[in-house]
Amino acid sequence: MELNLKKPIVFFDLETTGVDVVKDRIVEISYLKVYPNGKEEQKTQRINPEMHIPEQSTAIHGITDDDVKDCPLFKDYAKNLAKILEGADLGGFNSNKFDIPLLAEEFLRVGVDFDFHKRRFIDVQVIFHKMERRTLSAAYKFYCGKELEGAHGAAADTKATYEVLKAQLDMYKDADYEDVHGTIQKPVVNDIEKLSEFSSHNKNVDFAGRIVLNDKGVEVFNFGKYKGVPVTEVFKKDPGYYGWMLKSDFPLYTKKILTQIKLREITDK
User: Fold this and answer.
1) Domains, in order of start, for the chain
2) 30 near 40, Cβ under 8 Å?
3) Is 190 in contact with 169 (CB distance < 8 Å)?
4) How far apart are CA 25 and CA 47, in angstroms?
5) HEC string of the chain?
6) Phi and psi of 57, rounded to 5°?
7) Contacts of 74 (CB under 8 A, 6+ apart)
8) Going by DSSP bridges, is the β-strand pair 211-213/219-221 parallel, antiparallel, or unpaired?
């Protein structure tokens, strides 16, 4: 089943120096941009992360320090990438938990204020795990009936993710599923907004999930001693908590959202 698109969607995959959103860096990005008319554009770009690529990471994606020493820095590629992503929704495999948060950090580090909130996110892994609970290679075998050659290579993973989503739409177009509340749902429909909602685990305000929306649509902390407490309420009763978070090892995007809430609170007074 082909995607029902009103605007382009960019499927992308990152290869990185590690899995720490705050400390690690991109070494390769591959994207597949799909337009409403079915046109496809694909490109892979390696990036010099300006740090050593650990051997355990190289063992996964095969990229070494020598492979990227002459490649552009992310700061030199960021504006071009932002233009590619502008006006498009985003798709990936485990992208909501890793690729998008890390990409947001990289943009902020180099001063490119890319607005992620203007687009929908489709995480094919979430759909897969809710319906079948396996890995990308298994998903490709299960949905597409093919072995995934070149797994853990950004280009192969990106193309496979796109193909898996289309196959999911075919397989689950008539499938019901039971959500966490025991309610029977028809989740997998060919609509980007609804797919985005279905492929989200939580109503995150920041990508790392440190701040989420509660059932009333209020921003609350999702960790620590103030878990479940509205952010603005914490600001009032523990003013130093905001400063502590800004000085601590939280993602830049989390700090950006926190500051937006703080400024909104001051403006609304």
Assistant:
1) 9-198 (3.30.420.10), 211-268 (no CATH)
2) no
3) yes
4) 9
5) CCCCCCCCEEEEEEEECCCCCCCCCEEEEEEEEECCCCCEEEEEEECECCCCCCHHHHHHHCCCHHHHCCCCEHHHHHHHHHHHHCCCEEEECCHHHHHHHHHHHHHHHCCCCCCHHHCCEEEHHHHHHHHCCCCHHHHHHHHHCCCCCCCCCHHHHHHHHHHHHHHHHHHCCCCCEECCCCCEECCCCCCHHHHHHHCCCCCECCCCCCEEECCCCCEEECCHHHECCEHHHHHHHCCHHHHHHHHCCCCHHHHHHHHHHHHHHHHHC
6) -75, -40
7) 25, 26, 47, 49, 106, 109, 110
8) antiparallel
Please choose, from the candidates 190, 198, 192, 193, the residue with its C-alpha nearest in 3D space to the C-alpha of residue 1. 190
What are 137-160's pLDDT values in tens digits? 989 999 999 999 887 889 999 999
Specify the pLDDT at position 152.
80
Q: CA 101, CA 6: separation in Å to the nearest integer? A: 25
Distance (Å, whole) CA 181 – CA 25: 38
Q: What is the pLDDT of residues 19-71, one digit of tens each?
A: 999 999 999 999 999 999 999 999 999 999 999 999 999 999 999 999 999 99
Distance CA 191, CA 184 (A): 19
Which among 139, 155, 138, 127 has a CA at the least distance from the CA of 63? Answer: 155
